[in-house]
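Hi support team,

I submitted a single chain yesterday and got back a structure, but I'm not sure I'm reading the token output correctly. Could someone confirm the output below corresponds to the sequence I sent? I've pasted both exactly as they appear in my results page.

Thanks,
R.
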Amino acid sequence: MNQQAIFAPILAMFLLTLTVWIYMYARRISFIIQNNFLPEKMQPLELARISPPAVSNPSDNLKNLFELPVLFYALGHYLFITSQVDRFYMLLSWIFVGFRILHSLVHCTINRVLLRFYLYLTAAVALWLMILRASWHYLGRI
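Hi R., thanks for writing in. Yes, this is the structure output for that exact sequence:
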């Protein structure tokens, strides 16, 4: 299998992070302008405290995109470097990315917590399966 294929889901995650980042700032700047806040006088914690969910949820989601996805990025590069990319890793990678996209959509819009949890859980299980498989393969070579 083409080892570089692993970079497609990694780039998709990069683009998701960029999209959420842009959406977050669009919501945040709009909120600041509509309420005539002076940004230079706003303390970050104060803005978070007074922001409605439509403004704070995208920010929370962006923070979340720097948690488990960081492991995904590292693992993807590990798989590439060790020439382990195969169809199963690709399937799990796209499951991870697909469910992270759905998680972000829910988190940034309707924010149904239980739905968001199941989407997060599905993505997390796919990632942990990838990590366990890579670990098993590595430990089998020692």
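A quick pointer for reading it: The chain has a mean pLDDT of 95. Let us know if anything else looks off.

Best,
Support desk
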